[in-house]
Amino acid sequence: MEFKVKDIAMILNGTVEGDGEIKIHNISKIDQGVPGTLTFLSNPAYTKYIYSTLASAVIVSREFVPEGALSCTLIRVNDPYTALAELLKMYQQMKPAKSRIEQPSFVSNSATIGEDIYIGAFAYISDSVTIGNNVSIYPHVYIGDNVVIGDNTTIYAGVKIYADCKIGSDCILHSGAVIGADGFGFAPNANGPFSKILQVGNVILEDMVEIGANTCVDRATMGSTIIHSGVKLDNLIQVAHNVEIGENTVIAGQAGVAGSSKVGKNCMIGAQVGISGHLTVGDNVKIGGQAGVMSNIANDSTIIGSPVQDHKDFMRCMAIFRRLPQMSGDISDLKKWMKQSDSK
Questions:
Q1: 169-205: per-residue pLDDT in tens?
Q2: Confidence of residue 344 (pLDDT cuts 50, 70, 90)
Q3: Which terminal Cβ of the chain has fewer Cβ within 10 Å, N or C?
Q4: CA distance 71 to 206
Q5: Do residues 181 and 296 both lie within one domain?
Q6: Which residues are catalytic?
Q7: Per-residue pLDDT tens over the stretch 107-148
Q8: Residue 33 belongs to what domain range?
């Protein structure tokens, strides 16, 4: 598909600066641009590439002021990154949607299937499943008994959704995600192996939730593990039983949230963060990568470290830590001086 620059600008409510008749047929990174492609400039660190990029057009902020000659056409918008996201979403929606049930696949006679459904080969839809309209279920997906899936949800190849779980509308579950496996519940025995505690709850994913590849969200022991609307989980994340994650929170890869902890809304949690069990993390909290959270966190906190502390205190501590070798030498010299002074 090809679009003129002026048409793209109209879609984005942007302003063209240059040749609006240029045709765009693809998207590229600004440092790898080629003629006929569209790119964007959002991160100031990449500003230098706009003067050499071969891309035909660049989405920039309305406030961008070039400091040299440009060979590309500019599309000025309020927020380049958001504009690109909107453009990519529209481009994806223009692709022909699959709408059929491939064979071999299994769909239980008791399942309720909506309109414009795609079910890929080797998918398995169990008893009493309810699937909404415009849902795409790719090959090798397993959907257990009594699962409910809302409209416009996409479930990629190899996803497993255990019985009784509920998936909202406009969700995306990437390959290998497991929703509703047993929570990690075992009781120690004095004279033998651990006894398994049956996990009889479920998982609820509300609307517009995205689950990354190979991420696991465990079912509750009792009640529900709840991922609220708008939450985005990266790849390789572990969400344990009875956890609750608030609206519009984002969590980066390899993080883990232990059982019965509650994470507030609008939080940003970095990669490899570990949150201990039975804790409460407030709203609007930012947690730096590899942090270890071992106590409750107040609203609007920005923390880092293991165990976590305020990010400003952490940076002060790190500044001191880097000077420890010099300080150790200074202390050794001071001790020698004191011994010499005492001997006189």
A1: 999 999 999 999 999 999 998 888 899 999 999 999 9
A2: low
A3: C
A4: 46
A5: yes
A6: 241
A7: 999 999 999 999 999 999 999 999 999 999 999 999 999 999
A8: 3-94
Stretch among 55-59, 91-95, 173-177 having the lowest mean pLDDT: 91-95
H or E element at residue 58: strand 57-61
The amino acid present at 323, given as its one-letter code, is: R
Contact 265, 280 (CB under 8 A): no
Q: How many separate domains does the chain show?
A: 2
Identify the CATH number of the domain in which residue 198 sits.
2.160.10.10
**Range of weakest confidence among 55-64, 254-263, 332-341:** 332-341
Regarding whether 275 and 142 lie in a shared domain, the answer is yes
The count of C-alpha atoms lying within 13 angstroms of the C-alpha of 279, restricted to the half-sphere facing its C-beta, is 18
CB 215 within 8 A of CB 240: no
